[in-house]
Amino acid sequence: MGFTKKHIFNTQQNQIANFTKMIGHPARVSIIQHISLNKNCNCNALVEAIGLAQPTISQHLSEIKKTGLLKQTVKGKNLFYSINQNKLNECRRLINDFFVKTQVNCCK
Fold first, then answer.
1. What order do you get walking across the sheet with 70-75 strand by strand?
2. What does each C-alpha distance from 33 to 11, 26, 99, 108 come to in angstroms?
3. Which of 16, 57, 80, 86 could make a disulfide contact with 40, Cβ separation 3.0–4.6 Å?
4. Taking a C-beta distance cutoff of 8 angstroms, is the pair 65, 84 a contact?
5. 23 conformational bin, left if phi > 0, alpha if psi -120 to 50, beta if neither
6. What is the pLDDT of residue 21?
7. How far apart are the C-alpha atoms of 50 and 80, rounded to whole Å?
8. Domain boundaries, the chain
9. Per-residue model confidence as pLDDT tens digits over 37-68
10. Residues 70/55, Cβ–Cβ less than 8 Å
């Protein structure tokens, strides 16, 4: 993989790229959807619901967590995940603003 020159792009451009890269995999989309419907589910519940191996689910959870979209709660030896709604709203606004501004620019 090539070196990404993130430093030549502004913060907003990098944020949009990071978020869209994260949701660019169907397994991650499925994980996010499942967690949104089943608050505080753990990796085992995701393995059962989605049908991927536990290490694969863990890798995808790690990628999602990098964006801050997931909150973790420890109960005993288990980690439970829920959606960080503040981050979800931030990402939604960021993506929406990008498309609205792009559409407005195209119409000029």
1. 41-42, 78-83, 70-75
2. 27, 10, 22, 37
3. 80
4. no
5. alpha
6. 94
7. 16
8. 10-106
9. 998 899 999 999 999 999 999 999 999 999 99
10. no
Q: Which residues contact 65 (CB under 8 A, 6 or more apart)?
A: 72
Give the whole-angstrom CA distance, residue 86 versus residue 1: 32
Provide the 3-class DSSP secondary structure of residue 70.
strand
Say what the pLDDT of residue 3 is: 62
What single DSSP character describes residue 4? P
Hey, what are 66's tokens?
């990098």
Domain 10-106, what architecture? Orthogonal Bundle (1.10)
